[in-house]
Each structure stands twice: as structure tokens, then as C-alpha cells.
Amino acid sequence: MTSSGTATGIEVKGLAANELRAYLHTADFVAVKGGENEVRFIGPAVEIRTRPAAGQVARDYQVSLKLPIAISNASQFRIVHLSKAGEASMWMEDAGTSVDRNRTRVFSNTKQPGVYALVQVSGSETK
Question: Could you give the number of structural domains in the chain?
């Protein structure tokens, strides 16, 4: 699935499971808010690409990913972004993740294009 806005220079692509797996193998670690937790990638994932025009400034993006099922403890789901930390690659929770009132989607705001994925976090900090 690809959605693009040619006037805005933005392309958003849904990643297939095999594409996400390829990105998972490039990262050295995962960092989420709340400390030491176990993280499981559960999909979906998207890639945001930009083709900025001359003089175009950075913009805000809202990443929205569908939860696998409506659940009662939505705080255990986060959106992480594939980033660079020096020479290492890492998955990192950029900003707080919020959940819609129906508990079917999670949202995160960012200013960076790149690859974003849905993870499930387990541990004492997710209660």
C-alpha cells in the first residue's frame, strides 16, 4: 500500500512483514519510555519518505497505526522509529504514543521521515 502527496513531496508506504523483518535485522537495540521492558514487534509498519522542494521547511507528521485488536490495556502499545545513534542503528520511541478513544489505533507525532513500527511493551511500567 502506498499513499503519496506529490504536491507536498511526501510518500507513505505500508511495509510488508518481510520488509519489516529486513529492517529489524539492521538495528542493534530498542529504546522505549519507561525503562527496562520486553518489546515485541507486532506490526504494522510504515515508511515515510520526503522529496523536499527548495526552501521547504521541516513539517510535523502524525503516524497512526492500527492495533491488532481492540484491547483494554492500550498503554502497552507504542510506535518506534528506526534511528541512528552514532554508528549504531536503533528503534526508538520518539514521542509519547496516544490511543484513540475506541482503543483501535495508536498515534505518535514526529518531524522525521523514516520507518515506524508498532511494538507491544511488557513490564512493570506499562500498568
Answer: 1
Secondary structure E strands in the chain: 2-5, 10-15, 29-31, 38-50, 61-66, 77-85, 88-92, 98-99, 105-110, 114-122
pTM of the entire structure? 0.78
pLDDT tens by residue, 16-29: 988 988 888 777 77
Give how far Cα 25 sits from Cα of 4, 12, 22, 37, Å: 27, 22, 6, 19
By residue range, what is the domain housing residue 65?
2-126
Average pLDDT, whole number, for the chain? Answer: 77
